[in-house]
Write a structure and sequence with these properties.
With 171 residues, the protein is an alpha/beta fold. It is built from 7 helices and 8 strands. α7 links the parallel β7 and β8.
């Protein structure tokens, strides 16, 4: 199993890849670890969701229904959660509703969907994520937890948290 880094009870890193398979003469890592082992995206998402141990009555909002956002929506719906989505293409909303990946969705900023979400998962490029928070962060209710699946948190985490209202936590 690939290692998991957990620095606190609220924040964790889920490794997708660890190291490389190049057996360079100056590096001992692949010699001691062996060849790289891939993990299926479904396993990573299931692990992430299972660790959350969230009450099934919680409502999720996925912002961005691309590959990762769509995978999260699918996994959350399979677990019985209510899932909403905001994304840029109507065809993505239509597909997600037809295939029971989401309960409701919009291609516009929908204050009702944002306000009713207990947890918001952002599946956006980091610069778009920052812009979205800057323009719409005021719509997120106190007590809402937000997270992202961009994989580059260290460069944006403090900037995003500074833009949020008191009582909204970015994990």
């Amino acid at each position: 199993d690939a290692p998991k880094i957990r620095e606190s009870k609220h924040k964790a890193w889920v490794n997708i890849m660890y190291g490389c398979d190049e057996f360079c003469t100056y590096c001992i890592v692949p010699y001691t670890r062996g060849r790289e082992r891939s993990r299926a995206k479904e396993d990573i998402i299931a692990e992430d969701i299972n660790k959350m141990k969230i009450d099934v009555t919680k409502k999720f909002l996925i912002v961005g229904l691309g590959l990762l956002g769509g995978c999260y929506a699918m996994a959350l719906k399979k677990k019985g959660y209510t899932v909403y989505a905001i994304t840029k293409d109507q065809k993505d909303i239509d597909y997600a509703i037809e295939n029971n990946l989401i309960d409701e969705g919009s291609v516009h900023i929908d204050e009702k969907l944002i306000g009713s979400a207990d947890i918001i998962v952002f599946a956006l490029y980091p610069h778009i994520f920052k812009e979205w928070i800057k323009e719409n962060g005021h719509l997120i209710n106190q007590g809402t937890v937000i997270t992202d699946v961009t994989g580059v948190k260290s460069c944006i985490v403090y900037e995003i948290q500074a833009m949020l209202k008191k009582g909204v936590e970015f994990i």
